[in-house]
Amino acid sequence: MKVLLKQDVHGTGKTGDIVNVSDGYANNFLIPRGKAIPADAGTINAANIKKQAQKHRVEVQRRNAKALAADMSKLTVKVFSKAGENGRLFGSITGKEVAAALKEQYDIDVDKKKIRIDEPIKAVGVYTVGAHMFEQTDAKFKVEVLAITE
User: Fold this and answer.
1) Which of 20, 68, 83, 118 has its CA 20 to 30 A from that of 111?
2) Residue 69 contacts by C-beta under 8 Å, 6 or more apart in sequence?
3) Per residue in 65-85, pLDDT tens?
C-alpha cells in the first residue's frame, strides 16, 4: 500500500515521502496514529508540488546568501573598545559585538553564533573574520578594532 508520510518514521522514511508499506503496517499503525495518509493521485501531486516549492525556496535562500557573502567580503567593520596604553584591549571582541557593528553600520543581520573568530581579538588592529551565511556559503570580512579615546 502506498502512503504519504506526515512525519518522520524511523526505518520507513521522512516527512513528505511516498513509500510502499505492507497493508497491515499502514492500516494498523501508520494511519491510526496520524503518521501517514493513504496516497492517491491527489495527495501524490500535492506532495510533489510541496517538495518543488521547498526546493525553490532553498535555492533562492542559497542565491541570496551567496550574493550577500560576496558583498560582505568588501566590507570593513569598525568596532570600538576600551584599550590600554600599548593597544591591548580590556577583554576581547566577541561575535556579539561584531554582529551589532554589522547591524549598526551596514544594516546586515547576522546571528552572533554564526560569526567565526579564529583567534581571540585582544588588541587594536585589523582582523579577518568569517560568518556562516548558509550551508556551504561563508563570508570573510575585515574587522577593524579601534581604541576608545577618553
Assistant:
1) 83
2) 131, 133, 137, 138, 139
3) 999 999 999 999 999 999 988
Threshold 0.70, pTM exceeds:
yes
113 φ, ψ to 5°?
-75, -20
DSSP 8-state symbol, 83: B
In what order do the strands lie in the sheet containing 18-20? 18-20, 2-5, 36-38
Percent of the chain with pLDDT over 70: 99
pLDDT (tens digit per residue) in 40-59: 999 999 999 999 999 999 99
Cα gap 103→106, rounded to integer Å:
6
Residue 35's nearest CA partner among 45, 26, 47 is 26
Are the C-beta atoms of residues 140 and 73 closer than 8 Å to each other? yes
Residue 98, classified by CB atoms within 10 Å of its CB into exposed (0-12), middle (13-18) or buried (19+), is: buried
Q: How far is CA 104 from the centre of its chain?
A: 21
Residue 121: DSSP 8-state: E
Q: Are residues 124 and 146 in contact, defined by beta-carbon separation less than 8 angstroms?
A: yes
